[in-house]
Amino acid sequence: MERAVRTYLAGDALLTSLGDGTGENIRAIEAGTCGLRSVETPCPLAAAGKIDPAIRRRIAIDGYTPLESAMIHCARQAAAESGILLADEECLLVFASTKGNIELLRDNPIPPDEAFLHTLAERVAACLGAKRSPVVISNACISGLLALIVARRLIRNGFCRHAVVIGGDSLTEFVATGFLCFKSVSPGPCRPYDGSGEHGLSLGEAVGALVLTSDPTKAKQPAVVLEGGAVTNDANHISGPSRTGDGLHYAIEEALREAAVNRADISFINAHGTGTAYNDAMESKAIALSGLSDCPMNGLKGYIGHTLGASGIVESILCASELRSGRLFGTAGFTTPGTPEPLNLSSEPRSLTMKHCLKTASGFGGCNAAALFGLAPFVAEESDPAPGPACRLTASFELPADNRPFAEMIRAQYKALEDPNMKFYKMDNLAKAGYVAAEYLLRDRRLQEKYTPTQIAVVLENRSASLDCDLNHQHIVNEHHPEGTSPAVFVYTLPNVVAGEICIRHHIQGENTFFIDGKGDTAERYARLLIERRSARAVIYGICEYLTGNWQVRLNLLEAEEKQA
Description:
By secondary structure, this protein is α/β, with parallel strands linked by helices.
């Protein structure tokens, strides 16, 4: 059960195209420096945020990949600033990444161990001397912010006292060619929310580490608290944002409720701000729905690019700095308004009276996250929450083992459902497996009659993430076809897209979280936590694994116990 403890932000560390260390990054942003440059490797891009190779060489650790070395470097910095021991039994490492060591697939038709996200996390944890098995989250571009929300919940649940949240992704040909095939890359440095017509994102690479703790003596001063957070799904499209902004709006409202923050007391919003037309439009609508159009706002990707799984952590560290300093960074690249709903933006820094910050993120699979950070004197007093409802397992389904090839087996299972959704045939194998299993699990359950869309959650886990589809995309990359890579393949190179397909089919708009777990026992524990803390009334949870013809898919339905009259 959750306890009445505040979750303080302690030490932090940043490594981006602007430099090494939080202080160096802040000074560069305050000076208006843009870290986006033309690059030729890993493939030609007009503007991208690339970590200085000299820094890469300086922090390299023998036997570890560049991303692992950077994660170790930042985690050590953040822990040292916090005064915590990474080997403390009360310290947990939480990792966020979309693709990890994905460049290792380039010359390997069979994924090496280091290409598995959980192996990356275990290698980093071992080097740091951590005693506990790490928690790993891969949830598209909300991964970093979601990791902070998950870490806060685990601290409040008594699972640990300190959590070092580490997010990282590298600039790779794998990722760059994928976004290029979507035609979503900007012709120059990205211009979030701008009306110039130069729409598109700029990719970046970064690593960030942020320590959360229940110990107020470890807090970085002035003390900032992670007050609350929420996750939702659009239930609309796996690669395009909602046209109404309702999914992100629901996340914002739930985060405000959990944090007990009045919207009038929000000092500023740091939004996702990719610079793509549809994302920026969706965010403006969500912010308008939430009654926050007049609130000062910024986006930070014009300085460092879209750093994927690291972005939520990197940008949260910068938000905390803004709260402490009373200075709101400008939005680099913004000149004239370009969104359907008005936003309170400026390209120049502004001085503000600070109390609370709202941080948002959105990503493929329709996922959204929102979190509230507040200066400690303005944070509501904590009280022990009332005991949440008990929960019970009400349904289970396991995709059967079968001697037939997967394609033949899954088609037979699908046809037996008599489901008219022809989009099924366009899904990758992992999504097909999860989609079919969810159909059988939920038959005759009538969840939509019992619960609102935001009361239902999806929590999945596996070991291989989306490596099966990753191999397909990498094969296309290696072929260097003139027409480029395939959007229909690239969109499934994120494991949480499985949850997105389930959410679309069953109109589920509650939490959706994808863990990468080497043991296969995280999803159930987290599903029970969501119901106990009243974040969901029903949770679809389980293992959804598919890799090179082998599968393990076992889904369960957990529901809150109804109180007897």
